[in-house]
Amino acid sequence: MATESRISGGGAVRARTEAALVAGGVGLARLALLVLGAVPVVVVPVVGGVFAGAGVAWMLDAYYPAALFALFAAVVSGAALAGMFVRPVARRTRTRLGDWYGLRLPVSYSPRPALEADERGHWWTGYSYHRSYNVARLAQLLHWAVRDRATRTEMLWLVVSPLMVVALGAAVAGLLVGGVVYLVVAVRSYQDSGHAPELAMTMLASSVLALALVAVGVLLAPYAVRVYAEVARRVLDQDGRATHAQLTRRVAELTETRADAVGSQAAELRRIERDLHDGAQARLVAIGMTLGTIEHLMETDPVAARELLSEARQSSARALQELRDLVRGIHPPVLAERGLGDAVRALALDSALPTEVFVSLPDRLPAPVEATAYFSVCELLANAAKHSGAEQVWVDILYRAGRLRVTVTDDGVGVADPVRGTGLRGIERRLGTFDGVLAIDSTSGGPTTITLELPCELSSQRTSTSFEKV
After folding, report:
1. Which of 124, 149, 23 is nearest to 405 (CA)?
2. Nearest Cα to Cα of residue 308 among 290, 323, 321
3. 358 in the Ramachandran plot: left (φ > 0), alpha (ψ -120 to 50) or beta?
4. pLDDT tens-digit readout, 155-179
5. What is the secondary structure of 185-200 as a DSSP string?
């Protein structure tokens, strides 16, 4: 029985050893594939950048800043060539992880908007205008690649993947090569000594150590590939990229925007209550008192009664006008009936500065988005009239790629800063409720360009484009 147990135990050890060696061989093969796949990713951009830099340096040899131009050309050429490998490297990595470990990493790219030409002959990329079609196409590609989450992760992986392959491959190759070299040196030393008996044990120990290094390298290869796969999963897995810090920051942002929205709503209600109390309500009370006086004077002093009736009629007209102004401040009728484009045109008619309005919008936007954009433009036009010293204002209202983009430009003195007043800060808080952003480009001497972006989804995509100078 003891003999059978020893035989059975020896068979189990031999089976585990064979399985470990087979796994090591598979790991070495996979690691070799990773190394071979990383070679062109590194070599092509580097060689292309060197040739481009050398060519520029040769052409500009007589000029002083030739080295700077050569460096710039090398960087641009290398980056452009590296960009060719972004999608293929990520796709190959996802395929290998699926085949080797059953890891499925689905990818979803955001749609890239099509280039559109407006009536002025400019090309709209979904993010900006350009006169040239080729420039617009390149700008759209670069801007979309930076904004698209999946593409950003793939660009990151293009940098991380060769570094991981070099680090893991160097560790395994160092053990394998070190073991082989150590064994060759031990054997050569033993042969050169004339097979001296006193060196036999040294050679045997060196051989065992060399074989141990090789065995460790072989057994380490599967774990190296597993580490590579785990890093790839962490980088390329879109569903698992929301860290605790990101979620905490997002919760803080939502809490702040909710508090701003509640505070703005409360302030608006207080304003409405104050305007009603101090304006229309006071006039209506005065009219009631006047009508009571008229009731007593109808028989004794008809002339005074008629004068009081005239005053009451004028007070009622003023109260009605105040109510209309109050309703217009809450939600302008033209905005509710005609939409954002016509509401901004009506706003431009009352502006103190000449204003050109360009509108390219679908039929209607969601009512909250329209109201936010309208009152933001109202505030910006008022700021331009009060503080900018401008002579002309331009308002562009566009809807592209699921975002409403409103740009207000004036030719004033510039230096618009949210810190210097409450108007721009209020617009920021208003936009923050919808995850919108406010961008300010206002250098000293002008011009000032303020851009609002609001994400919104539309059910109708029928577009109405118009241009009007007010």
Report:
1. 124
2. 290
3. beta
4. 888 889 999 999 988 888 888 888 8
5. HHHHHHHHTTS-GGGH
